[in-house]
Design brief:
It contains eleven helices and twelve strands. With 309 residues, the chain is of the alpha/beta class. α7 links the parallel β8 and β9. It folds into three domains: 83 residues, Orthogonal Bundle (Arc Repressor Mutant, subunit A); 98 residues, 3-Layer(aba) Sandwich (D-Maltodextrin-Binding Protein, domain 2); 105 residues, Periplasmic binding protein-like II (D-Maltodextrin-Binding Protein, domain 2), CATH 3.40.190.
């Protein structure tokens, strides 16, 4: 962005002379004189009164110069912002997160940017996994932070951690006697076949957890006899705690549920054939040209999210 005409005219006004203005602008005097004549011809009236080598603005010249200086000041502000943005000091980032995770992620992400990148404006959008992918495809957000159940070739991914799927059952479920200890695992392991007659409370098809459940059923060669769809994970855990059936939760979700009454009545288990097909990630478009500063900033964000409690 360079306002050549405005800079030339304002320089003539500041120096009061075409020759001195030409020296400052590093162009020849005849070239600057010709440029001024062309501008005045286009405007239909003179901007300066010539008296020997002296140039004095006319009334319309004074108005032109006043507005031109404002335009140049705006240009300078823009160029400064541009330089700072290129350096990663200023800018904007639009982040999409799953609605279920927003209460957990919003505070630490805002604190991360305010403390480390105070010149970056942060905007948040919320949706389910399907909605977030659509936002990213339509360029409504720059990055999404979500649970990915598959890797799309048009996206780049930064892994935060693998998502462990947990089977939630009532505390006193009779199948608990079949659970086995697994080395290195927090929870015991149990096979789905022992829950063939149970009601399965699972999320809707638009939710990433549903995709993981479907993958688990396929890998386990297991088809629930009864399914009841519930969108809210906390509601599913409440139904399980009340002894109405079994359900699934993600390990990361379970850590942040403030339902002591419910959680005290639930047992969590790992399930064989869980291929860890879901990962908590940051994703962004491959086609978009991202600066080194952007990639560095997102990598630092990923590192912060890795160590969240």
């Amino acid at each position: 962005m360079f306002l050549k005409e405005q800079v030339y005219i304002c320089t003539i006004a500041e120096t009061g002379s075409i020759s001195r203005a030409a020296e400052r602008l590093y162009i020849s005097q005849p070239a600057l004189s010709a440029y001024l004549r062309n501008v005045e011809y286009t405007l239909g009236m003179p901007l300066f009164v010539r008296s020997g080598k002296r140039c004095t603005p006319t009334l319309i010249g004074e108005k032109y110069i006043k507005n031109a200086r404002q335009m140049i000041a705006l240009q300078d502000d823009f160029n400064l912002d541009l330089a700072l943005t290129v350096k990663g000091v200023l800018g904007r980032i639009r982040i999409g997160t799953q609605t279920r995770r927003s209460p957990i992620l919003l505070s630490p992400i805002l604190r991360f940017f305010w403390e480390n990148y105070p010149g970056i404006e942060v905007n948040f959008e919320e949706s389910n996994a399907k909605g977030l992918l659509a936002m990213l495809d339509e360029r409504k957000v720059d990055i999404i932070i979500f649970t990915a159940t598959e890797r799309l070739p048009e996206l780049s991914y930064l892994d935060i951690y693998p998502e462990e799927l947990l089977l939630a059952t009532p505390l006193d479920h009779p199948a608990r006697k079949y659970a086995k200890e697994v080395l290195g695992k927090q929870y015991k392991s149990i096979e789905l076949k022992y829950f063939a007659d149970d009601m399965f409370f699972i999320p809707h098809h638009s939710q990433s957890l549903r995709n993981t459940c479907e993958s688990l059923f396929a890998n386990s060669n297991f088809t629930p006899k009864r399914i009841f769809e519930v969108r809210n994970i906390e509601a599913i855990m409440t139904l399980v705690a009340d002894g109405l059936g079994v359900g699934f939760n993600r390990a990361s979700y379970s850590k942040h549920m403030n339902q002591n009454r419910v959680l005290s009545k639930i047992s969590y288990y790992n399930v064989p054939y869980d291929s860890a097909s879901a990962d908590f990630v940051i994703a962004f478009q491959k086609k978009t040209q991202h600066s080194e500063q952007f990639i560095s900033m997102i990598s630092n964000l990923r590192d912060m999210l890795k160590i969240l409690p």
